[in-house]
Write a structure and sequence with these properties.
Elements (H helix, E strand, L loop, with lengths): L1 H13 L18 H4 L1 H21 L3 H16 L2 H15 L3 H9 L5 H19 L5 H24 L8 H8 L2 H49 L4 H24 L1
Helix pairs in contact: 3-4, 3-8, 4-7, 5-6, 5-7, 5-11, 7-11, 8-10, 8-11, 10-11
Length: about 260
């Protein structure tokens, strides 16, 4: 039980701003931390559910509701994935060699392309979110997206080749029970995808399709451009997968 609780704490504290007890990483509490990472998505989903219920009670307009949907995932994550999104955007915009791209991703400075990309991302996410109906059904679809994206991200760390022999992804991949993580995160993704499709129909299919499309792009792009994945690329994927999930749901709703 002690190791299980430590595993939960490691996965949640590493990938969110949720206060958790701190433990020294070791081979035992890191084995399944990429599975417990999914719990961060569950927490975001619960907050969005509460925000949706509160918004229905107050009768807020679609813009304010969408602002909350845009804000809360960043609040809970602490911006860790958006940081990776920024670093990867700067690297991709450089059009430099593979090694130089990896150096740019490791640079702590934020470039102009990252600033532009974050602004564009938030505008797009907010815009798509304004098209979602203010309903508990919307909260369920979004909660499923938060879970699916984190399950897919954990799966990728255990299944894809790291681009470097050091760094966060290499550490998590090296210390994780890879087969356990692939099975666990894969099963969670399938259950979440099936649930949202069964209970949300076409909108759920759109959300799942968006996440799956982004995952496929992540696999091809990371291997071709960087020779594998890094922590920054994992953050870039998760942010884009959330955007694609919401966009897919909206497109399915409108067509």
């Amino acid at each position: 039980m002690k190791i299980f609780l430590q595993t939960l704490a490691v996965g949640i504290s590493m990938f969110s701003a949720i206060p958790m007890p701190q433990f020294e990483w070791n081979d035992r509490n890191m084995r399944g931390s990429l599975i417990s990472f999914v719990l961060v998505g569950v927490v975001i989903g619960l907050i969005v559910w509460a925000w949706t219920a509160f918004s229905l009670w107050l009768g807020v307009n679609s813009a304010l509701y969408a602002a909350g949907l845009t804000f809360f995932p960043l609040l809970v994550s602490g911006g860790i994935h958006m940081d990776g999104f920024c670093d990867t955007t700067d690297a991709l915009a450089s059009h430099a060699s593979r090694d130089r791209k990896l150096e740019i991703m490791s640079d702590s400075h934020t470039g102009a392309f990252a600033v532009i990309a974050v602004g564009a991302y938030l505008v797009l996410y907010f815009g798509f979110a304004t098209e979602l109906p203010l309903s508990m059904q919307t909260a369920f679809v979004l909660a499923s997206v938060y879970v699916m994206t984190r399950a897919a991200s954990g799966f990728a760390v255990a299944a894809f080749k790291p681009a470097k022999g050091s760094g966060l992804v290499h550490t998590f991949a090296d210390m994780a029970a890879k087969r356990l993580v692939r099975i666990g995160d894969g099963a969670i993704f399938i259950v979440a995808a099936a649930a949202v499709i069964i209970f949300s129909g076409t909108v759920g299919i759109g959300a799942v399709a968006g996440v799956v499309l982004m995952f496929a792009w992540y696999r091809v792009m990371s291997a071709h451009v960087f020779g594998g994945i890094t922590g920054d690329l994992a953050g870039w994927f998760l942010q884009n997968a959330e955007l694609f999930g919401v966009a897919g749901a909206v497109i399915a709703l409108l067509v």
